[in-house]
Design brief:
With about 325 residues, the protein is mostly helical. The chain contains 15 helices and no strands. α1 packs antiparallel against α7, α2 runs parallel beside α7 and α2 crosses α8.
């Protein structure tokens, strides 16, 4: 069930991508590195969403809920109980997987728009409950501040974020190239056929959700320590969800490298528009660009790249 399907040219491309990311601090300034740090975390959020929704077809609108659990867990453990960061982050990942599974597992038994609505309702519920339930722990509407930093300086922060993103991306890529990943893809194509073949679709979807939740909790915990503070609006917010989904759609759903490309494209587009449109209107511009791109090629930038490569190979032949 876990036989790997690896091709040499894929490994070469991954090696080239890793080398480029590691050499980036030698080519750009600290301001660009800080932008890339946010792009790396957004890419991890997008990868985690893509593992569940891009593969199985179950659109989750509650992903900020998972990211927020990881962030708040490590924040509470480090600031309220004095637990070291090295211990709080693994605990945050486990809490995210357990809490998310308990709350959202019943939702996996329903399909289509109902699943999306249930996950969206969970996220909105958390946004309303976090400020009022145990504000002595969560900090209420003000959140939790002065979280211990993991690194100092833009370059160190970039290497941490990029290294974590590359590790998550390689793990997800290898996992999705096993037969287990193929089964998850088959659920998105025709769930009834997968169930008819004797496989438990509930177990497969639960596994996809656990992996997705684990990555979201891990990225959320590291992102909280990078920001140094947590507020309900900074995590349990529909704008975060919008950015995640748009990044996946721009890059190409159902892939691993696609969400990374989409995240970097979106973040740098917003930064490029900032001097000309400092307000929220720049979100309208990038949303329009994403809509046009999606209408032209629903499979995203990855499909455009594949088409260009195929034409180049054809012309050589």
């Amino acid at each position: 069930m876990r036989t790997l399907d690896l091709r040499p040219h894929h490994l070469v491309l991954w090696a080239a991508f890793i080398a480029l990311m590691l050499l980036m601090p030698l080519m750009v300034g600290n301001g660009t590195l800080r932008t890339m740090i946010f792009a790396c975390y957004l890419a991890m959020f997008a990868i985690s969403w893509d593992i569940l929704s891009g593969r199985t077809g179950y659109l989750s609108f509650g992903h900020p809920f998972l990211i927020g659990i990881g962030a708040y867990t490590t924040g509470i453990l480090t600031r309220r109980y004095g637990i070291p960061v090295e211990a709080s982050i693994p605990i945050a990942v486990l809490v995210t997987m357990a809490g998310g599974l308990i709350i959202l597992l019943p939702a996996l038994r329903i399909k289509g728009s109902y699943f999306a609505l249930v996950t969206l309702a969970v996220m909105e519920l958390m946004l309303q409950l976090v400020p009022v339930i145990r504000p002595d722990l969560t900090g209420g509407t003000r959140g939790i501040s002065r979280l211990p930093a993991l690194t100092r300086g833009a370059e160190n922060g970039y290497y941490l974020a990029a290294g974590l993103m590359l590790a998550v991306a390689l793990f997800a890529w290898l996992l999705m190239r096993t037969r287990l990943g193929t089964a998850l893809w088959a659920i998105g194509m025709n769930e009834e056929s997968v169930r008819g073949s004797g496989l438990s679709t509930t177990r497969l979807k639960s596994f996809a959700f656990l992996v997705s939740a684990g990555i979201a909790g891990l990225a959320g915990a590291f992102y909280a320590h990078y920001l140094g503070s947590i507020t309900p609006r900074s995590f349990f917010d529909i704008n975060i969800l919008f950015q995640i989904i748009v990044a996946v759609l721009i890059g190409g759903a159902g892939t691993i490298i696609g969400p990374i490309i989409g995240a970097f494209f979106m973040v740098f587009l917003l930064e490029w528009l900032r001097p000309y449109m400092p307000g929220t209107e720049r979100f309208f511009v990038y949303g329009s660009i994403a809509l046009v791109l999606y209408m032209y090629q629903p499979k995203g930038i990855m499909a455009i790249v594949d088409t260009i490569v195929s034409k180049m190979k054809g012309s050589r032949a």
